[in-house]
């Protein structure tokens, strides 16, 4: 990044121009998630990262926010750009209502080691206010002290231009939070190819297939869902909701006879529910994609295993479907399109101990020939011949039962729309995370109250957000 900046400045672009663009982009990202003005506190170090924070603060003030700044250095100290921006900024510490946010502009890229002195004190202050006031922390470029025990804990990291590799370390998840890319096209053009790949809407929206005016329910795709068992009937319904709100033209749940009445009465009326005692009949059912596994229980019928291994159609395998085939591992699906969506507990049935999230997902792909969504707070998607992609969206409210069931149906619906298993995994991860954000930021739910059903109902907003190229 530093080399790219130097090459850009050599073309005549001024550092302050770049700072103004970065600060405006960060401010717009904050406004996107918190459109109602509130109170913001800027925490400023000695470098240009602090200058970015002050540009952010100036724009937030223009948009009605009450903004004050806390500095680690005296007036007249720090970088030239910081001093310029500090002279232009007027703090306002008037108490105000609305959302409470903190902007971490203490340290930028290139800093390392434990935090000491005033920087350490201000980092602790950020974390204290975050806990005591439930404030939301936005880190500029990367959280201060990432990797240090006393580092800032951010809820959002506004990564300027591109995502930095350190942000994707497994150990960084709780320090980094939601990843947001701040576009700076001029600077991106100066970067060498390579580095980590993270899903963002501007890239992913081109993957969605626009519908033809003459499309009908048959041409929009048929999903068959094999899910549910006694005590776990909700998993089947949630999988159906994921497919229904994910664009499938026709969604059918195959439910064993003992649970048929429950599933049929609880599923949305648009979903068809078929009773069965023999899942081999799915082989002959008119479906484009299969979704197998949610809520099948500890001892699912063995004919479901035959579906997973032998049916030539694309299939998404999750939950108890994964548990059913794990004893047969290692195996190779060959040319059968499969998308496996394990969480860490399910992944541990294939590999023990687990390596890093990326290495483990790539290993499962290598062994099976399948696309893999290794689910979690920073889901990573792999597939044969594809560069791995991390997901950026979502929040801790998704730590609730049923989210994975919705994802199973959603990814199956995406595959019916002529999207590859790999891209369906990436899109599905982004969409379900964005739907959870919409439920909280736009519909008033909280991390504590969020349910999987609410997330499914917000998928429409997530699709529209993707098409707009939102953060």
Give me some keywords for this one:
471 residues; alpha/beta; Rossmann fold; UDP-N-acetylmuramoyl-L-alanine:D-glutamate ligase; six-stranded parallel sheet; 39% helix; 15% strand; elongated
Descriptive notes:
The protein has 471 residues and is an alpha/beta fold. It has 2 domains: 2-196, YjeF N-terminal domain (Rossmann fold), CATH 3.40.50; 205-468, Ribokinase (UDP-N-acetylmuramoyl-L-alanine:D-glutamate ligase), CATH 3.40.1190.20. Helix content is 39%, strand content 15%. The chain is built from 18 helices and 15 strands. The strands form 2 sheets. The protein has a 9-stranded mixed beta sheet with strand order 9-8-7-10-11-12-13-14-15, sandwiched between helices. The chain has a 6-stranded parallel beta sheet with strand order 2-1-3-4-5-6, with helices on both faces. Strand 13 and strand 14 (380-382) form a beta hairpin. Helix 2 packs across helix 3 (48-62), helix 9 packs across helix 15 (403-416) and helix 16 crosses helix 18 (459-468). The longest helix is centred in the last third of the chain and has 21 residues, at 421-441. The model has no long low-confidence stretch (mean pLDDT 96).
The CATH class label of the largest domain is Alpha Beta
Distance between the termini: 21 Å
Task: Specify the CATH homologous superfamily of the largest domain.
Answer: Ribokinase
Query: What is the percent of helical residues?
Result: 25-40%
Main sheet: strands, sense, barrel: 9 strands, mixed
As a percent range, the share of strand residues is: 5-15%
- Would you tell me the overall average pLDDT? 96
Helix run count: 18
SS-derived structural category: alpha/beta
Tally of strands: 15
Q: Which descriptor suits the 3D outline?
A: elongated
Strand order of the largest sheet: 9-8-7-10-11-12-13-14-15
For the record, the CATH architecture of the largest domain stands as 3-Layer(aba) Sandwich
Unreliable stretches: none
């Amino acid at each position: 990044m530093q080399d790219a900046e130097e090459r850009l400045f050599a073309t005549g672009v001024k550092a302050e121009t770049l700072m103004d663009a970065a600060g405006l982009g960060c401010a717009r990202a904050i406004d996107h998630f918190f459109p109602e003005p509130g109170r913001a506190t800027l925490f400023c170090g000695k470098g240009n990262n602090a200058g970015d924070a002050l540009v952010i603060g100036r724009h937030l003030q223009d948009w009605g926010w009450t903004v004050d700044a806390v500095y680690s250095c005296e007036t007249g100290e720090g970088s030239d750009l910081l001093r310029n921006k500090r002279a232009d900024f007027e703090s306002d510490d008037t108490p105000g209502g609305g959302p409470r946010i903190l902007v971490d502009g203490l340290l930028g890229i290139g800093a390392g080691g434990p935090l000491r002195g005033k920087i350490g004190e201000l980092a602790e202050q950020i974390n204290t206010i975050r806990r005591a006031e439930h404030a939301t922390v936005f880190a500029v470029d990367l959280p201060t002290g990432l990797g240090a025990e006393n580092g800032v804990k951010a809820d959002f990291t506004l990564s300027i231009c591109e995502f930095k590799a350190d942000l994707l370390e497994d150990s960084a998840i709780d320090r980094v939070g939601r990843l947001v890319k701040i576009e700076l096209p001029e600077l991106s053009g100066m970067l060498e190819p390579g580095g980590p790949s993270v899903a963002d809407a501007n890239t992913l929206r081109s993957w969605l297939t626009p519908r033809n005016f003459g499309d009908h329910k048959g041409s929009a795709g048929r999903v068959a869902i094999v899910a549910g068992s006694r005590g776990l009937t909700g998993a089947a319904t949630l999988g159906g909701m994921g497919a229904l709100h994910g664009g499938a033209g026709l969604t059918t749940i195959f439910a064993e006879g003992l649970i048929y009445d429950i599933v049929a009465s609880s599923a949305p009326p648009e979903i068809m529910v078929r009773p069965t005692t023999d899942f081999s009949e799915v082989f002959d059912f008119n479906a484009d994609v299969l979704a197998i596994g949610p809520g099948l229980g500890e001892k699912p019928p063995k004919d479901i295993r035959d579906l997973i291994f032998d049916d030539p159609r694309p299939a998404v395998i999750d939950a108890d479907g994964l548990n059913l085939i794990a004893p047969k591992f290692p195996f190779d699906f060959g040319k059968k399109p499969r998308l496996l969506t394990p969480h860490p507990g399910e992944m541990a049935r294939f590999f023990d101990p687990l390596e890093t999230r990326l290495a483990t997902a790539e290993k499962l792909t290598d062994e099976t020939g399948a696309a893999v969504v290794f689910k979690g707070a920073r889901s990573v998607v792999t597939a044969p011949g594809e560069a791995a992609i991390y997901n950026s969206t979502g929040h801790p409210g998704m730590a609730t039962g049923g989210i994975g069931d919705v994802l199973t149906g959603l990814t199956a619906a995406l595959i019916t729309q002529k999207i590859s298993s790999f891209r369906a995994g990436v899109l599905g991860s982004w969409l379900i995370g964005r739907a959870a954000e919409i439920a909280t930021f736009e519909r008033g739910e909280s991390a504590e109250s969020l349910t999987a059903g609410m997330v499914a109902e917000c998928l429409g907003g997530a699709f529209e957000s993707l098409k707009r190229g939102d953060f």
